[in-house]
């Protein structure tokens, strides 16, 4: 968990403790507040100590139980502020993958220039429908979430209209490992590789491929997206991180440019893609 996120969670906990101790009817003890809320006593101190993330309902109930309902808005704003940076998959995927894709569509639609690095999957903006469907099924199995696969896939396909609007540019870097990873049936990956090769030469796409044998100046770590040099989104197994501070944006852009030094473009990129395709069809 990021230091900034934890500090924000601890600051919210401190504020919750202040409200408990300043209840209009006199300071509340932790056990007394837990009794009012019907919570385990331990939850009070986990929230106040920044060891547990409050839900919006937790904050509403806390404000009411401590006699500060007028401060509910402040507490919710604090929560929104730090959760906008770390978005847990457990919470985001509660209603399935489609809402997450719709949120992404809104963010991407505002962008004019996108940098992306993917080390293990084909970038979503360049996926075929069948490949996207296979990826969503893998993640639904992993997280045990609602299988709204076709709805999520359609939302991702809608995002690709961005590629056909003038004045926009997707600068995508893909590690060769992503071209060979069988996250889907071989025939689906073959079609995906054909689609990927076909994007080379589009005026809205600059596709670079980093060959497996290329010398790397930094490890090929998690994939990430940079939207207009104003927002970075990257994923881990537990959460998606959205970063909008200048220092982190500069770091990720520098990382992208460092990875680009190992990439090939044009005919050379097509040769790497075709090599991965031949390896599939030779099975």
Write a short abstract of this structure:
By secondary structure, the protein is an alpha/beta fold.
Provide the fold topology:
Elements: H1 3-21, H2 30-37, H3 41-48, H4 56-65, H5 72-83, E1 86-88, H6 89-92, H7 98-109, E2 113-118, H8 129-143, H9 149-159, E3 169-175, H10 176-180, H11 186-198, E4 205-210, E5 224-227, E6 231-235, E7 239-243, H12 246-260, H13 266-281
Parallel strand pairs: 2-3, 3-4
Antiparallel strand pairs: 1-7, 2-5, 5-6, 6-7
Shape: elongated
**CATH class term of the largest domain:** Alpha Beta
Strand content: 5-15%
List low-pLDDT spans.
none
Widest beta sheet: strand line-up:
1-7-6-5-2-3-4
Rounded to the nearest angstrom, the distance between the terminal CA atoms is: 42 Å
What's the total helix number? 13
- Rg calc: 23 Å
Q: Encode the helix/strand succession as letters.
A: HHHHHEHHEHHEHHEEEEHH
Nearest-integer average pLDDT:
92
Number of domains: 2
CATH homologous group name of the largest domain = Endonuclease Chain A
The CATH architecture name of the largest domain reads 2-Layer Sandwich
Total DSSP E strands: 7
> Largest sheet, if any?
7 strands, mixed
Looking at the structure, the CATH topology of the largest domain is Endonuclease, Chain A
Kindly state the percentage of residues in helix.
40-55%
């Amino acid at each position: 968990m990021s230091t900034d996120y934890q500090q924000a969670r601890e600051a919210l906990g401190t504020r919750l403790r202040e409200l408990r101790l300043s209840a209009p009817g006199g300071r509340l003890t932790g056990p007394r507040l837990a009794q009012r809320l019907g919570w385990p006593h331990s939850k009070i101190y986990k929230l106040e100590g920044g060891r547990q993330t409050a839900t919006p309902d937790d904050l509403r109930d806390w404000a009411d139980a401590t006699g500060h309902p007028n401060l509910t808005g402040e507490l919710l704003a604090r929560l929104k502020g730090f959760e906008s940076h770390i978005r847990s998959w457990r919470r985001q995927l509660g209603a399935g993958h489609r809402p997450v894709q719709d949120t992404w569509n809104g963010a991407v639609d505002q962008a004019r220039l996108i940098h992306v690095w993917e080390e293990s999957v084909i970038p979503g903006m360049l996926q075929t429908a069948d490949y996207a469907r296979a990826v969503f099924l893998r993640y639904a199995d992993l997280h045990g979430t609602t299988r709204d696969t076709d709805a999520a896939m359609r939302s991702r396909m809608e995002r690709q209209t961005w590629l056909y609007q003038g004045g926009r540019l997707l600068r995508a870097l893909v590690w060769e490992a992503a071209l060979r990873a069988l996250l889907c049936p071989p025939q689906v990956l073959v079609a995906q590789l054909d689609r990927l090769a076909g994007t080379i030469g589009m005026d809205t796409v600059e596709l670079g491929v980093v060959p497996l044998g290329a010398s790397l100046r930094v490890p090929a770590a998690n994939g990430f997206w940079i939207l207009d040099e104003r927002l970075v989104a990257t994923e881990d197994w537990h959460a998606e991180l959205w970063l909008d501070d200048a220092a982190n944006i500069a770091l990720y852009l520098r990382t992208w440019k460092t990875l680009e030094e190992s990439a090939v473009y044009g005919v050379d990129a097509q040769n790497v893609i075709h090599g991965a395709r031949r390896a599939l069809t030779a099975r």
